[in-house]
Design brief:
This protein is an alpha+beta fold and 563 residues long. The chain is 28% helix and 17% strand. The strands form 5 sheets. Strands 7, 8, 9, 10 and 15 form a 5-stranded antiparallel beta sheet that branches. It has a 4-stranded antiparallel beta sheet with strand order 2-3-1-4, with helices on both faces. Strands 5-6 form a two-stranded parallel sheet. The two termini are 24 Å apart. Bound molecules: delta-meso nitroheme. Delta-meso nitroheme (N7H) binds next to strand 7, helix 13, strand 10 and helix 16. InterPro entries: Dimeric_a/b-barrel, DyP_N, Dyp_peroxidase.
């Protein structure tokens, strides 16, 4: 898997990247494109591991006082992936990947279904006509991701002493150089339609996304490929890579083996609105304190308003900004826990130490059911949902932040504007991308079956309305015209179902007849007191700007396409 698969990150390894560019393209001359493919070298998962190893080794040498073998490590890593239209153009029309969604839909077809509430960027909208679907002459055919990282081993040592955290070399230059090389290589055979650039945040925020939370902590560990860290969720290889154990699609065509599906989404984050919402509501910390008001009154010292705001934000995410899970640190942040990879995934949301709370039932005593990381990976829903079903929904995430840091001037201007006339927020957020062998089991299930589903996680025999995921939630708009959709969102941005509706929640693993079952029943609505999603006047803080589904071929398959 490691040397054949091009997934740039498998289970739990941090990607060696400081900067990443996604070049979205159309293939203009398929034969010439295939000739160029001969000289295109995608980076294998094994290469990524070797790169990380060489950085660690050089740093170790410096630590021991030896001269490192290399003084500057420049990494340029590439991944190529194709949309369904792109595969067709390459001559694979009629050849199915086996992923029915990918074979029959572009992400644009699923815009409403995924709950994307606002207009997309023209790059991802290109030529889409609601009645006819994607315009063949405009559709994106593929993407090349270029991830760069430039590290000076010696300067890193000096930085350790003087605490200088700025990157001394520009990863952007390497990225631009790599883009130019690609443009020369593919020449007139392609039309690069748009570039979307991501960059890790500077200094101590390097591993944080724009709301300030450490990202990339929890990844599935692939059985037989890597050693799991304590508590890390383990999945069979076929959940992530096509053609192995637990691949939900039986009898895939041979060319898909070692490939994977990638879902890309550009997600805008309203950082100032988030900060404001969290700090305003943080003062109410006693209302959502584990154990209730009585326990909150006994806490000594009580939380400051700032700590209350941090707790409020942490209950939205399921982790503190440091990465510490609130399931283990429910009241105050614990940065040592957040930074310790051997402990920061060692939990499964069971509550074992509270009298009156059953350790054998899902409980939201410490962590709300709606917290983003719990919605997307509930870890344990015994006895209601099988572990096998939860495992089958795993994705490998490889997101990177984009956009500038918030400046003091921007913050001041935003804060001083009246509530009804806030200036639009600067374009910044997350270039989300993830991998799994099957879109409906992974990305799509997490978005629609989990994030946008008020009734997930299943916590009893009768569905209970917990609410939307406050980070990625947002129900599909109602109505058919643009105006109707907008009106429905403005009127009720958080309600997908009405009180008293009948719901069916399908817990079926495709291709598996043993563990299929459906929970259905009448809704019992519960007040959303725990960590209520933003209200009508404060819509969701993450807005999708568009994206696409891509198939990432294995290196041998890619080479077999080259002329
Ligand atoms: Fe999420 N955030 O900063 O709030 N996410 N996410 N995500 N996310 C996670 O464990 C975030 C998005 C998952 O195993 C953390 O790495 C933001 C989408 C999954 O415990 C944080 C955005 C989807 C996990 C964030 C965003 C997911 C996860 C905790 C968009 C899937 C692992 C750190 C702007 C469709 C859960 C960590 C587990 C964790 C944030 C998007 C899925 C901090 C800001 C679109 C599976």
């Amino acid at each position: 898997i490691r040397s054949r698969g091009v997934v740039p990150l498998i289970g739990g390894e941090r990607p060696a990247k400081s900067s990443e560019r996604f070049v979205f393209f159309r293939i203009e001359d398929p034969s010439a494109f295939k000739v160029a493919l001969r000289d295109f070298k995608p980076t294998s998962a094994k290469d990524v591991q070797t790169n990380i190893f060489s950085i660690c080794k050089a740093r170790q040498e410096v630590k021991l006082g030896n001269k490192p073998a290399v003084e500057r490590i420049k990494l340029k890593q590439y991944l190529i992936a194709f949309s369904r239209k792109g595969l067709d153009v390459l001559g694979l029309e009629g050849k199915k990947t086996g992923d029915v969604r990918f074979d029959t839909h572009s992400m644009r077809d699923d815009k409403d279904y995924l709950g994307d509430q606002r207009d997309w960027l023209p790059l991802f909208e290109q030529g889409f006509k609601p009645e006819q679907g994607i315009d063949e002459k405009q559709a994106l055919h593929g993407v090349i991701a270029i991830a760069t990282d430039s590290k000076s081993v010696l300067i890193w040592k000096i930085r350790q002493y003087i605490g200088l955290l700025k990157t001394p070399f520009s990863d952007d230059e390497d990225r631009d150089e790599a883009t130019n090389d690609l443009k020369t290589l593919f020449g007139k055979s392609w039309d690069p339609r748009g570039e979307v650039d991501g960059k890790v945040r500077p200094g101590e925020n390097r591993h944080n996304e724009h709301f300030g939370f450490k990202d990339g902590i929890s990844q599935p560990s692939v059985r037989g490929v890597n050693h799991p860290l304590p508590g890390q969720i383990q999945v069979d290889p076929g959940v992530i890579i096509m053609g192995y154990d637990s691949d939900p699609v039986p009898n895939r065509e041979a060319w898909t083996k070692d490939g994977t599906m990638m879902a890309f989404k550009k997600l805008h984050q309203s950082v100032l609105s988030w900060d404001d919402y969290v700090s305003t509501n943080g003062q109410r910390w006693k209302e959502f304190f584990p154990g209730g008001q009585e326990a909150a009154n006994k806490l000594y010292p009580p939380l400051t308003n700032e700590e209350g705001a941090q707790l409020f934000g942490a209950r939205f995410v399921g982790r503190w900004q440091s990465g510490a899970p609130i399931a283990l640190a429910p009241i105050r942040d614990d940065p040592d826990l957040g930074n310790d990879p051997k402990r920061n995934n060692k939990f499964d949301y069971s509550v074992r130490d509270v009298p009156g709370v059953s350790p054998h039932e899902p409980s939201d005593y410490y962590c709300p059911f709606t917290a983003h990381s719990r919605k997307t990976v509930p870890r344990n829903l015994d006895p209601y949902v099988s572990r096998q079903y939860l495992e089958s929904g795993a994705i490998v995430r490889a997101a990177i932040a984009y956009g500038p840091e918030v400046t003091d001037d921007e913050r001041k201007a935003w804060q001083s504007a009246p509530a009804t006339k806030k200036p639009p927020e600067v374009e910044r957020g997350l270039l989300f991308n993830c991998y799994s062998s099957h879109l409906d089991s992974g990305f799509v299930r997490q978005s629609t079956g989990y994030g946008n589903n008020d009734y997930f996680p299943i916590t009893g025999l009768i569905p209970v309305k917990h609410g939307q995921d406050p980070i990625i939630g947002g129900p599909p708009p109602k109505g058919s015209s643009k105006e109707e959709k907008k009106a429905s969102l403005d009127a009720a941005p958080t309600n997908q179902f009405q009180d008293g509706d009948e719901v069916d929640i399908d817990l079926k693993i495709p291709g598996d007849t043993l563990s299929c079952y459906t929970v259905s029943g009448q809704i019992s609505v519960r007040p959303l007191t725990q960590a209520a999603p933003p209200g009508a006047d404060n819509p969701f803080f993450v807005t999708s700007q568009g994206g696409e589904y891509f198939f990432v071929p294995s290196i041998p398959t890619l080479k077999s396409w080259a002329n």
